[in-house]
Amino acid sequence: MDKLIFLKRVLWFLVEIFSLGLVLIIFMYFLLGQTSGTFVISVIENIGVFVKSAGENTIVALLIIISLVLYLNKAEASPKSPPRSREKK
After folding, report:
1. Which of 21, 58, 57 has the alpha carbon at shortest distance from 39?
2. Torsion on CA atoms 60, 61, 62, 66, rounded to nearest 10
3. What are the phi and psi torsion angles at 86 (to 5°)?
4. In whole angstroms, how far apart are CA 55 and each of 16, 50, 58?
5. Among 4, 37, 63, 64, which residue's CB has the most CB atoms within a 10 Å radius?
6. Is the pLDDT of residue 14 over 90?
7. Is-contact 23 11, C-beta < 8 A?
8. Angle at Cα 16 formed by Cα 13 and Cα 21, nearest 5°?
9. CA 14, 17, 21, 26 torsion: positive or negative?
10. Residue 43 CB: number of other CB atoms within 10 A?
């Protein structure tokens, strides 16, 4: 069971790292435009091709699913504190 939890943490770490890399590439393209280099431009073109082929509804559904997964992981990670009783002194 410990190996499964460790594997889950490692996989989420990799997803976060690659997502951050993708966001940084997009940000570089926004800053530099067409002079940002062939790699950055090819990544942006691939994102455009993916969005066109997937369609708007699919992209919205993916964003909703990702948001739910992140919300549920955050809710699972944070321990719930017991409610405080409001006693008057």
Report:
1. 21
2. 100
3. -100, 95
4. 25, 8, 6
5. 37
6. yes
7. no
8. 125
9. positive
10. 18
Pull the structure tokens for residue 62.
């993916």
User: Which 3 state secondary structure label does DSSP give 78?
Assistant: coil
Backbone torsion region of residue 55, taken as left when φ is above 0, otherwise alpha when ψ lies between -120 and 50, otherwise beta = left
Residues 29 and 42 sit within 8 Å (Cβ to Cβ): no
Question: How is residue 79 written in tokens?
Answer: 């321990």
At 37, the amino acid letter reads: G
Which of the pair, 82 or 2, is modelled with greater confidence? 2
Contact 59/51 with Cβ under 8 angstroms? yes
Q: Which residue has the tokens 């409001």?
A: 86
* pLDDT surpassing 90 at residue 81: no
Look at residue 18 in the predicted model and tell me its pLDDT: 93
Separation CA 39–CA 52 (nearest Å): 20
